[in-house]
Amino acid sequence: MWCVSNPAQSRYRVRMLVAAVLCILFAALAAAAFNVWHLTGAVAWVVAVVSALPIVGALVGTGAYLNEEKDEFQRNLYIQAILGGIAGTLAATTIWGYLEDFARAPHMRLIWVCPMFWIFVVVVFPVIRLRYR
To answer: How is the chain split into domains, by residue range?
Structure first.
């Protein structure tokens, strides 16, 4: 995905860049709003949900890329990387859950699950590509 570029991959990069910028911007604005105005009730819920919408956009953008990608090999590589990301995230969060329950490890905030998933995807993707060299 990073070496070869076709129109679907270019659009995907733009979508993900926009989603990342919006995610950072919305999270910063939400944090500031909570710190300044001490939001509660329905307003707090709305601000929290709106600040998470760029993450939903990134997931929708990923689905759009998989739909638009005409190269079946590239699409398959990315699907494998996504499955690796899901597996890594599921394993890490499950292990951490057991550590919380049995070893009194500190609570992991759920806000870190999505970044963890994308880190696993980025780590797994080159490993999967190496299998086809």
So the answer is: 1-70, 71-133
Query: In the structure encoding, which two tokens stand for residue 76, read together?
Result: 């398959």
Cα–Cα distance measured from residue 81 to residue 85, given in angstroms and rounded to the nearest whole number: 6
One-letter amino acid for residue 18 of the chain: V
What lies within 8 Å, CB to CB, of 87 at 6+ separation is 120
The DSSP result for 10-46, as a single string, is HHHHHHHHHHHHHHHHHHHHHHHHHHHH---HHHHHH
Task: Quote the pTM value.
Answer: 0.90
The string of pLDDT tens digits covering residues 44-54 is: 999 999 999 99
Residue 41 has pLDDT above 60, yes or no: yes
DSSP 40: -
How far apart CA 89 and CA 117 sit, in angstroms, is 5
